[in-house]
Amino acid sequence: MADLLVRGVDEALVRKLKDRAAAHGRSAEAEHREILASALKRPRRRSFAEVLASMPDVGIDADFARIEDEEKLRPCT
Questions:
Q1: Residues ≥6 apart with Cβ < 8 Å to 46
Q2: Is 36 helix (H, G, I), strand (E, B) or coil?
Q3: What's the pLDDT score for residue 74?
Q4: Which of 14, 16, 28, 77 is least enclosed, having the fewest CB within 10 Å?
C-alpha cells in the first residue's frame, strides 16, 4: 500500500476528523482512509445530456404537447 501525507490541513478540520473517528471507534488515520475510499469509489455522476440520451425514444411529439399549447394553436371561431 502507498502512503499519503497531507500538509497544511486546517486545525479545525483535523479536530473534526478526530471527533468523527472517535465517534466511529477508529483512529484518525483509519477514518481518513474511509472518507477517501467512500468519496472516490462512488459511481461517476452522469451529465444531464447522458441521462437524456439514455431515455427511450417513445411516442411522437404530439403525444407530449401541453394543453395550453394546443389551445393557442386552435383558430378562434
A1: 54
A2: helix
A3: 66
A4: 77
All three cell numbers of 9: 490541513
Pick out the chain residues at pLDDT < 70: 69-77
- CA 11 to chain CA centroid, Å, is 28
Phi, psi for residue 67 in degrees, rounded to 5: -60, -40
Q: Which three cell numbers stand for residue 70?
A: 394546443
CA distance 69 to 59: 18
**Helical segments of 1-77, H only:** 11-23, 28-40, 48-54, 67-73
| Distance, CA of 43 to chain centre | 9
Q: How many CB atoms lie within 10 A of CB 21?
A: 18
Spatial contact of 21 and 31, defined as CB atoms under 8 Å apart: yes
In this structure, what C-alpha cell is assigned to residue 27? 483512529
